[in-house]
Fold:
Amino acid sequence: MYTITLIPGDGIGPEVTDAACKVINATGVNVQWERFEDVGFRGIEKFGHPLPDDVLSSIRKNRIALKGPVTTPVGEGFRSINVSLRQKLDLYVNLRPCKLLPGLLTPFTGVDLVIFRENTEGLYSGIESYDERLEIADSIARITRKGSRRILRYAFEWVLANQRKRLTAVHKANVLKLSTGLFLEEALATAAEYPDVRFDQFIVDNMAMQLVIKPEQFDCIVTTNLFGDILSDLCAGLVGGLGMVPGANIGDDIAVFEAVHGSAPDIAGTSKANPTALIRSAALLLHHIGETEASVQIEQAVTRAYEEGTSLTPDVGGTASTGEMTDEIVHLITDMSN
Structure:
């Protein structure tokens, strides 16, 4: 029995989290969920805070959480719940696999990328000030040696453990010589400790161009917070969009798994939401806790569902509801188990 914190989120969040829970249950892995509905706007309405302390306490106790999308107000209001979780729980790795599923119409074939984004520093450190007299806003991109070393070491170790081919560090050290220059310096030093990993480095603007010209030349990518945020969404676009890709926020002792797409309030309650991203995030979660066979079952079932194409949601050319697509994936898992 695993006890796992569950944050359904808002908008389409409850629909896709219910789908992910059903799929996990179909694998036979025994999970008891600690469910917290009052996060984001609901948290403010009930407790005066978008991320109540009992949610953080549950995650710290259970060390694993599955999270649906939570609406973040733009330009005002509370900070992103994702950013708050990452910083409060020191989840310094954002892991984003971007692998193309069969049957999706994209300009590319065979894309299979993994992004390692530093998750707690850079321009997302939250160090900002505003000079009302001069009307100047400042944001500080804080990058530390410790923060750089640990994301780089995690990436190199992951590449070795998963028998991947190449790791590319992305930076802007030609202009941001001190901040991303420090990150590049640490990347080169860490690479020297891993001679069995093929390593190279790219400037971020060139990297963005290369990814949309010939993405198959890359394998695994490690970079700083802001660059990782942008490039991971770009890579998601190469494989069909944010609705296709899973996400994980990982620290030394705690991990939170989430869909990286938004809460899509315009389709909430219509049963049109595609549950693929959170279901694949659930597969990452199971792999993380050592339930490798169950994780593989989910990935194989999702792949088969896309190969067959008969029970897909409208955003990927089908006519199925969220529940019907989930039921098909559950059915495929059950078939594999038998």
Q: What stands out?
A: The CA atoms of residues 171 and 203 lie 5 Å apart.
